[in-house]
Amino acid sequence: MNKKLLLGAEAVAVAAIDAGISGVYAYPGTPSTEITTYIQNSAEAREKNIHSRWSANEKTAYEAALGMSYSGKRALICMKHVGLNVAADAFINSAITGCNGGMVLLVADDPSMHSSQNEQDTRMYGKFAYLPLLEPSNQQELYDAVKYAFDFSEKISLPIIVRVTTRLSHSRAVVVQSDKRPQNALNPSTQENSWILLPANARKNYANLLEKQTQLLEESEQSFLNKSIQGSGNIGVIAFGIAYNYAMEIKTTHALDCGVLKISHYPLPLKTIEAFVKNYKTIVIAEEGYPIYEELLPAYFPHTTFVGRLTGALPRMGELNPKLLGESLGITLPVHHASSDIVVPRPPQLCQGCGHRDLFEELNHILEKYEHKHVFSDIGCYTLGALPPFNTISTCVDMGASITMAKGAADAGLHPAICVIGDSTFTHSGMTGLLDAVNDESSITVIISDNSTTAMTGGQDSSGTGKLYDICKGIGVLPEHIHLVVPIKKNREHNIRILSQEIEYKGVSVIISQRECVQVAIRNQKKS
Amino acid sequence: MQKNYIIAGVGGQGILSMAAIIDVTAMNSGLYVKQAEVHGMSQRGGSVEAHLRISDTEIFSDIIPLGEADCIIATEPMEALRYIPFLKEHGTIITASKSLINCANYPDKEVLDKELQSKIHCITIDADAIALSCGSIKTSNIVILGAASNYLGIDEAQYIQAIKTLFASKGTDIVNMNICAFSKGREYKN
Fold it and tell me: Where would you tag: which of A55, A179, A294, B50 has the fewest CB atoms within 10 A of its CB?
């Protein structure tokens, strides 16, 4: 028996290797990053020649995985919840094509927005695409679910979604591995029509997908991931995914007589739910995410009272926890030591020795003389430029939006229209926006704050390292308006001069402000 | 038997290494382990916490319920205080005495010490000094862990074994430094 102490994310990686994948495709994003890094560092994965290099973004990752599946091999795709917005086109249409080799999409949601800009619930995407979704509650289940998902995917010829949340992905527990399965041989799909989504084919495929729903529902109804614990009281809890842990924590610690039904497999197994609901007067719906099924279930069971996020029994937003589940069941957890009011927040900050710091200082100096001090920015460590002592940036919306928002603002007449984007974010989703700006000859100043890594998620390789100048030139930015500067104290006057001059240029300029991430530099130094 | 520990500090202080040592120690002792940790943005000099639960029966919640932590083990005193609502009535705090001030309005040291000592059974340790005596200030976190181990149960030998396993790739000197830090921390009397 092979026991390992694994993060949820690592349990996914080990399960995928054991399930015989030939590739993992991903773009880093908290809390999903550790899955791919685990596979990259695995000697076993190297021996098996498992592809694990980072993709430029989630869409390219999804499509590459689809190509591997087309060829008959198993592929894992990993991303954070907002990454699925980027990959959504490929994702939704892959439900119409179906797959050949087993294909599992692991999405890590971030309720409470620990490191994200929203708390969107991937279960919505599961319904939207009509694809099965698994939502395990602990690390062992997660390992078992991922292995099962690959088999099920091949059996039903559809991609399977596995949803985790921050708490499961970033929590460690002991996982017992089961048998390893060999990798698939090359076996390209011969079902041509199913992969060519011309309307005539797409209609047939879509009808086929709808027909499969009965089979998917049967699979949910008998899933090993669902679990019903009968209680003798009037209250039952339907706990989805990790909410089961909190419900059971309260039930066992306080010896409650409530029943608990754990649902971890969608489409929603309505028969299983009906069998549970009829035993109780009141049902607490505990969903780690949106109240998707709380909106739906009361219509099915009009004689039962449902409480949850929509009724105020649980908060409308944010992660669940034992305290909240306790309150929904009438238990108040004791606080023996009240919070101390002398404790102050300690927000994250840019590292000492980080190049973004010098860049923001330069920009603040330049902006002093302008009436409009707006800097469009993006997602990365440099988003911390929004906080003191810098207070430099004005926006952070979605990957790549800095360039396109600056362009739109310039179109509206805003001057200066400056944007700051990281190197990895630029190649993820910034390049196409730069092309729009070039074609429109927009008066924008694009600053690529290039630390040659994907720093915020822990320093993963960045797709554009060493290629940024050529990319910008290739997109059509005039070479005389592409500058390479190094953001260090002794270059400050020089950099300010270049930036000031380009801000006044009526067209697209790109300043690549390039200095290696200090964390990566330290790590590389230790290695050598 | 169930024990709940919050390990708290500031990004870069080695919170996750401390947690990893307890995890491995507990796993090798045949116990259930769950340890929820903070990654991502919080690593950049912000507050970092790990919730660590060990038990001889199945553990459900990855997060420690309010009021049920046996110990808060901290590498920084204000961070120790941050999590006191999680502490049991007669719980214990074991913390490094030295403040790390990288945020606005950090409390006055005397007020902070008074707050810690007046309310709770609190052990403060000059971990840096002990760590230095073992050869590197970087082992401060392991000094704290050593002191905390007196409250955690499990044989000392199991901890030493876990340290050897986890630091093996870094060489014998690093392993010995950490064992020294652990042992001196364990011997520390407030």
Answer: A179
- CB-based contact (8 Å) between B118 and chain A? no
What gap in Å lies between CA A129 and CA A354, rounded to an integer?
A: 42
Of 3.90.70.10, 3.40.50.920, 3.40.50.2000, 3.40.190.80, the CATH number of A227-328 is: 3.40.50.920
Q: What is the DSSP letter of A299?
A: H
What does the alpha-carbon distance between residue B172 and residue A375 come to, in Å, rounded to a whole number?
50
Q: Where in chain A is the domain with CATH 3.40.50.970?
A: 2-180+196-221, 355-524
Asked if A351 and B34 come within 8 Å (Cβ–Cβ), the reply is no
B137-140 contacts at long range (C-beta below 8 A, 24 or more positions apart): B138/B14, B139/B177, B139/B178, B139/B180, B139/B181, B140/B13, B140/B14, B140/B75, B140/B96, B140/B181
Identify the pLDDT of residue B39: 61
ipTM of the complex: 0.93
**Residue A385 near residue A356, CB atoms below 8 Å:** yes
Distinct helix (H) and strand (E) counts, chain A? 21, 18
Nearest residue, CB atoms, A349 vs list B35, B44, B88:
B44
pLDDT tens digits, residue range B139-154?
999 999 999 999 888 8
pLDDT of residue A527: 78
Q: How far apart are CA A49 and CA A193, in angstroms?
A: 31
User: How many Å lie between the alpha carbon of A310 and the closest alpha carbon of chain B?
Assistant: 23
Altogether, the residues listed in chain A come to a count of 528
Mean per-residue pLDDT of chain B: 92
Interface test with B, best of A113, A343, A350 (most B CBs within 10 A): A343
Under CATH, which architecture does the B2-187 domain have?
Answer: 3-Layer(aba) Sandwich (3.40)
Q: Supply the pLDDT for residue B38.
A: 74
Tokens of A188: 């390209």
Q: What is the mean pLDDT of each run of 10 residues along chain A (528 residues)?
A: 91 98 97 97 98 98 98 98 98 98 98 94 98 98 98 98 97 96 97 93 97 98 98 98 98 97 98 98 98 97 97 98 98 93 90 94 98 97 94 98 98 98 98 98 98 91 96 98 97 98 98 95 84
Q: With an 8 Å Cβ cutoff, are B78 and A343 in contact? A: yes
What are the residue ranges of CATH 3.40.50.920 in chain A?
A: 227-328
Strands (DSSP E) contained in A110-170 are: 133-134, 160-165
How distant, in Å, are the alpha carbons of A21, A55, A69, A151, A332 from that of A101? Answer: 9, 20, 4, 9, 50
For A2-180+196-221, CATH number? Answer: 3.40.50.970
Q: State both tokens at B167.
A: 């630091």
User: Do the Cβ atoms of A253 and B88 come within 8 Å?
Assistant: no
- B/e letters for A431-469, b = 16+ CB within 10 Å, e = fewer, are bebbeebbeeebbbbbbbbbbbbbbbbbbbebbbeeebb
Assigned token pair, A104: 């599992």
Chain B residues closer than 8 Å to A242 by CB: 62
The helices-and-strands tally (H runs, E runs) of chain B is 7, 6
Which residues in A lie closer than 8 A to residue B43 (C-beta atoms)? 348, 458
Domain A355-524 CATH assignment equals 1.10.1040.10: no
